[in-house]
Amino acid sequence: LAPAACLNFNCMLILLPVCRNLLSFLRGSIQCCSRTAARQLDRNITFHKLVAYMIAFHTAVHIIAHLFNFERFMDAQLEANTSSLTHVLSVIGNKENESFLNPIRSNGTTIVMFTTVAGLTGVVITLALILIITSSMEVIRRSYFEVFWFTHHLFIVFFIGLVLHGIGRIVRGQTFANLKLHKPLTCHSRYEEWGRITECPEPEFAGNPPMTWKWVVGPMVLYLCERIVRFYRSQQKVVITKVVMHPSKTLELQMKKKGFKMEVGQYIFMQCPSISQLEWHPFTLTSAPEEGHFSVHIRIVGDWTQALYSACGGDKTEGQEAWELPRMAVDGPFGTASEDVFRYEVVMLVGAGIGVTPFASILKSVWYKHVQQNTNVFTKKIYFYWLCPETEAFEWFADLLQSLERQMTEKNMSDFLSYNIYLTRWKDTEAAHFRVHHEAENDPITGLKQKTLYGKPNWDSEFNTIATSHPGCKVGVFLCGPPLLAKALEKQCLTQSQAGAEFIFNKENF
Question: Which structural domain range is residue 304 located in?
Answer without folding.
Answer: 238-308+329-334
